[in-house]
Amino acid sequence: MDKVIYYNSLYSIYGELLTDKEKELFCLYYEENLTMEEIANLKKISKSAVGKRIKDAMQKLQLYESKIKMLSKTNQIINIVNEEEKEKIIKIIAEEE
Length: 97
Prior knowledge:
By secondary structure, the protein is mainly α. The chain is 84% helix and 0% strand. The protein contains 5 helices and no strands. The protein starts with a helix and ends with a helix.
């Protein structure tokens, strides 16, 4: 899974567990696609402070996923549903022949 998609997926599940500052900087970086330098200039903080806050947020999101596994479970359910739908489509096509 692409890194941006992965972290946005984790954020959509666990984002409310982050601090307000972590949420703000995470969204600017991953959703608004700003660079750390742009965020630092916008927020009037150092680039290293931006990097640290974003890294902390990413680590928290990964920790939550390692404990709760909601993204993993959701992906497993989607795969099962997709497989069942695929089988239904194959049956429909086979009946039409």
